[in-house]
Write a structure and sequence with these properties.
heterodimer, A: 542 residues, alpha+beta, mRNA Triphosphatase Cet1, Chain A, CHAD domain, twelve-stranded antiparallel β-sheet, 16 helices, 54% helix, globular, B: 250 residues, alpha/beta, Rossmann fold, seven-stranded mixed β-sheet, 13 helices, 7 strands
């Protein structure tokens, strides 16, 4: 019996090695000759069926980032999901009768240990096929003087196919990763397996495998794990001309917008639209706050265009937020029953389908195409030919300082009697400051940066709770009107919606009561000192 | 974990060949199977091309100072492992009966069963290939086994052998294995063989309907050094073992 796992030695051979000998594809003849000196070799009949597998992850690589790998192993009927650590250590597995045609959300997975383990981690994202692999396995037995099998040389040859389009790889492109060779130990014969591995490792053209099969498949396809992130992550430096830095920041946001279009159009999961909208908002803020270093008409034109794009996405995102929060919302009901809200859910789902179609039409239209194509061209020109002055550092200090002072002034003028609009306005300005801090993060001292962002985030959470509660309450009223107009609102549903609206009023009042304290922590004397430190202390090494 | 033991007071009755072929069939059915070669002659180990030697000695194994796990060897077949024979097993009666070394104060008859217990998670079936004779070893085997597989050569003495054994098992305290006898080395051309088989199957419960014929292919196992069910899977011999396995193992 072969013992799998840590007793297995994995070695790698180049795919274009010498022709197969004795049925070991891709294995250099020298390798067999070397093993032949120590053992008698017997080839086992080839595995005619082959092996089909698909590696899955979310679009933003949540499993990979958590150090996990998920594989769907296809059998004649159905198959099974295998969850392992990045080093191959098994974590959980469960049978699945069939894999859904479309990418699966956590709730689409059948109950089982894999779903239990990854459900919360991936939610609300869908599992996408990343790479498909079809492989054949050849086994050569290594025998001792008694003709006893003391180890096995297992060779895997795979053809891998990119299942999802990515920046560098089109869906459907195929590649052949290096043939993998493993010396599988036979129980009770560890010395012989070590010897066989040593013989293989010493051969030219055979190297110790440094990657998992999944990572090797990605490399062969020209992809890298975790090659998508919705973060700012632009490569800028303090000494860089400001227009060049701004063009880089904006190009990065444009990449995020474009990377998410396909997922929005196919309605794979709600995070595609979320990331898309964040990138649009960041673009709008950058155009507004940093646009002075760009050609004047360019900033003005694209401020209008990105506002249009953002507005196009708002109705669908609002419906997503309602539907994602539906469970927790019904959980708050005291008087009404969750079932009372089912007509509301059905209404939201119908509306969502309509809004999906409307947004898809816009994203397939000429105006969106013109925005992305022309904007990229303009930004590339600036990136490659930008004026030298001012520097990115000067722009960062000036704009961040200005945004901080503005928040201090606006927030300081808010009293318990101020209208809600004053808090909404402050929220917008706080968001702008947050984006500036994200854009210029590489130019700041990380500790000073983390402190300012931490307190700003606390203030933003409070302002967000205040405004979102109000907006949602108003939406509940608007939805009630719309449902009544469509005769889709039973009395019990309207009563339940009333209870939800009342809860939202309470939440808003709590947020308002908390505002003064949060603002004081952010913008009081200590906050001012934190901002000064941030703006005078450059990032180490700059 | 189900434990089968091939056992007979007499030697040379097809005990080891049965253990080897049935263990191979069990593994081929997908059951994780271990064959423990308890016979110091090491015939089962030889048939799997495994050296009849336990690293560190069988004495340490039986005394429990070394775990069985370390001594197990993989055979050439998936799901089939072997615990090799060791020459020190010739003193196994002394080892198993050596209560002075057993600080637990438990009965020596349960020692083998206790040694096997940690393997329950790893194996579905265990086959014990026992040395002939009635001794402390046999008592241990009977204590550990769920099924006692008794090969019988069709002679008039075989009735006596089976009765002796059944009586011995009935006299055991506590755990008693189920006794399943089967005829081995049967020559169908001999009228006497046929009559003895028919009589015993009619008169005694627990006698399998499938006889294992005396075939030169079974003797060839020592040349091929593999189970007949592996090197000649479509032969009459392999078919007979398969029928016996589905009768007693399923």
């Amino acid at each position: 019996m072969t013992t799998p796992g840590p007793r297995e030695f994995v070695l790698e051979a180049p795919a274009r090695a010498e022709a197969a000998q004795d049925g070991v594809p891709g294995l250099p003849a020298a390798a067999l000759a070397a093993l032949g000196q120590a053992f008698s070799l017997t080839a086992e009949p080839a595995d005619a069926d082959g092996h089909r597998r698909t590696w899955l992850d979310t679009f933003d690589w949540r499993l990979y980032r958590a150090g996990l790998m998920l594989e769907f192993e296809q059998a004649r009927r159905g198959g099974r999901l295998l969850l392992s650590r990045a080093d191959g250590t098994p974590q959980a597995q469960q049978p699945v009768t069939r894999w859904p045609r479309r990418p699966a959300l956590a709730e689409d997975l059948p109950d089982g240990p894999v779903r239990d383990r990854i459900g919360a981690l991936i939610s609300p994202r869908a599992l996408l096929p990343i790479v498909r692999a079809a492989s054949t396995t050849t086994v050569t037995r290594l025998l001792n003087g008694d003709g006893k099998t003391v180890a096995r040389l297992v060779a895997y040859r795979a053809t891998v196919t990119a299942a999802m389009p990515a920046a560098q790889t089109a869906a459907g492109s195929t590649a052949e990763p290096p043939v993998r060779l493993a010396i599988a130990e036979v129980r009770g014969y560890p010395r012989q397996a070590r010897k066989a591995a040593r013989l293989l490792a010493g051969l030219p053209g055979v190297a110790q495998a440094s990657q998992s099969e999944f990572a090797a498949a990605l490399t062969a396809l020209g992809r890298h794990p975790a090659d998508y992130s919705s973060g700012v992550e632009a490569e800028i430096t303090a000494a860089m001309p400001a227009p060049v830095a701004v063009a880089r920041l904006l190009l990065r946001q444009l990449d995020i917008i474009e990377n998410n279009v396909d997922g929005v159009l196919r309605d794979i999961d709600t995070e595609f639209l979320h990331d898309f909208r964040v990138a649009v908002r960041r673009t709008r803020s950058a155009v507004k706050l940093l646009g002075a270093v760009l050609p004047a008409d360019l900033a003005e034109h694209y401020a209008t265009e990105f506002k249009w794009l953002g507005d196009m996405t708002t109705p669908l995102r609002d419906l997503d937020v309602h539907l994602l929060g539906f469970g927790p919302m019904t959980g708050q009901l005291v008087a009404a029953s969750p079932a009372d809200l089912e007509p509301l859910r059905a209404f939201l789902v119908r509306r969502r389908a309509r809004e999906c179609r409307r947004l898809a039409a816009a994203l397939r239209g000429a105006r969106f195409r013109a925005i992305t194509d022309d904007w990229r061209k303009a930004l590339l020109t600036i990136r490659d030919n930008g004026k030298r002055r001012p520097t990115a550092e000067r722009l960062a200090v000036a704009t961040t300082g200005r945004a901080f002072r503005r928040i201090t002034a606006l927030g300081g003028a808010i009293t318990p009697d101020s209208p809600p609009e004053s808090l909404h306005n402050l929220r917008k300005r706080a968001k702008e400051l947050r984006y500036l801090l994200e854009f210029f993060a590489p130019l700041h001292d990380p500790v000073a940066h983390r402190k300012v962002v931490g307190h700003l985030k606390q203030l933003q959470d409070c302002l967000g709770e205040f405004q979102d509660s109000q907006v949602q309450r108003e939406e509940i009223h608007a939805l009630a009107d719309a449902m009544l107009a469509e005769r889709a609102a039973p009395a019990a549903t309207l009563l339940a919606m009333g209870e939800i609206a009342a809860n939202l009023t309470l939440r808003q009042a709590e947020a308002r009561a908390d505002f003064a304290r949060r603002f004081a922590r952010f913008a009081g004397p200590e906050g001012q000192q934190r901002a000064r430190t941030l703006l005078t202390r450059p990032a180490s090494g700059q | 974990m189900r434990i089968f033991a091939t056992y007979n007071i007499k030697g040379g009755v097809g005990k080891t060949t049965a253990a080897v072929n049935l263990a191979h069939l069990s593994a081929a059915d997908g059951h994780r199977t271990l064959l423990w070669d308890l016979d110091p002659q090491g015939a089962a180990s030889f048939l799997f091309r495994i050296k009849p030697r336990v690293k560190g000695g069988g004495r340490a194994l039986i005394r429990g100072t070394k775990t069985l796990d370390d001594a197990i060897k993989g055979t050439d077949f998936d799901d089939l492992d072997l615990l090799p024979a060791d020459f020190t097993y010739r003193n196994m009666d002394l080892l198993l009966g050596d209560t002075a070394k057993d600080h637990t104060g438990r009965k020596p008859a349960g020692k083998l069963a206790r040694l096997l217990r940690p393997l329950a998670a790893e194996y579905d079936h265990v086959f014990l290939d026992c040395p002939p004779s009635i001794s402390v070893v046999s008592e241990n085997v009977m204590h550990a086994a769920d099924v006692l597989l008794v090969p019988l050569i069709p002679t008039t003495l075989s009735v006596r052998t089976l009765d002796q054994l059944t009586g011995f098992v009935a006299g055991l305290n506590g755990h008693r294995p189920r006794v399943r006898a089967f005829f081995s080395m049967v020559d169908r051309r001999k009228k006497l063989h046929q009559e003895i088989i028919e009589d015993l199957q009619a008169e005694r419960a627990g006698v399998a309907a499938t006889p294992i014929p005396a075939l030169s292919l079974i003797e060839r196992m020592s040349v091929e050094r593999a189970p007949v069910t592996a090197f000649a899977p479509h032969s009459a011999a392999a078919r007979a073992y398969r029928a016996l396995w589905s009768e007693i193992g399923g």
